[in-house]
Design goal:
With 329 residues, the protein is of the alpha+beta class. It has helices at 13-27, 30-33, 65-78, 99-116, 170-180, 196-204, 219-230, 246-255, 277-285; strands spanning 39-41, 46-53, 59-60, 63-64, 82-94, 119-128, 136-146, 160-164, 209-214, 234-238, 268-273, 292-298, 305-308, 314-316.
Amino acid sequence: MKTITLAHGNGGQENNELISKVFYKAFKNDILDKSEDAAVIENGNLAFSTDSFTVSPLFFNGADIGKLAICGTCNDLAMMGAKPKYLTCSVIIEEGLDKRTLDKIVKSMKEELEVNGAVVVSGDTKVVPKGSVDKIFINTTGIGQIQYKGISSNNITSEDTILVSRDIGAHGATIFASREGIDMNTNLKSDCASLYPQVKALIDSGIKITALRDATRGGVSAVLNEWAKQSNICIEVEEASIPVSDEVNGICELLGFEAMALANEGTFVLAIKNEDAQKALEVLKQTNETASIIGSVSAEHIGKVVLNSAWGTKRFLELPTGELLPRIC
């Protein structure tokens, strides 16, 4: 790796290489080594995470960069069983940005903060010359109070069942269609949403949760591959059980994408104790009818994800490579 390419931001293989060889190498410590969606600190009582947002276009069907900036960080906290509490907001604004655009973005952020019961308590603003950034980039950092301790992607075993909270790939497909001006005359829209209410419902129902992860860049494929390596397991996925909408399937068939590798912003993957899997599915279906049990854990091919087709064939589901959609979030 001599230079940084767009593929290094894909959430897949190249992105993992960049993080491990540059940032993990420089900042190595026990908390960072766990590679969770958010750092667990203060004796397991707090979750801490940060994220930056550069999505293009700024506004798209179902959300905008403002809503995305709150959902993204709050969802990372929720994936560790934490209720989002306090956020910071930093923005880099290109000179010439219409104030009405900025007002609309900030309004979306305010509304999503209310969904999470969180507040922005600090921030920073920079304005840079035209051409230095594309309109506006946003960073949010969040702290959450952990409500359910012990969630970790390093502890998944054969006693767990793999679920997904809804149909996959809607955000990636929406961004691509919007960016390329594709009008499919459908209801396709981003899945961008705050996930803490669903996590709270699982906790309140007494579900035994092993791991949670929102399937953002790199999609469900990246999550499952990361889990397989982190927990030293094989994850076997039933292809017929993966929920994909007709609209997303249409985009994938048109452009040669794989839905499992498309980004999501309101979809998460769960590892739930086998005895609670059906109960967890019932809780998830209260929000999204398309929630599904998609796989199990085995020792068949350690560190790998196996996709079982409806015709009895098997293939490895690899970590995404290359950059299908830069600036997806």
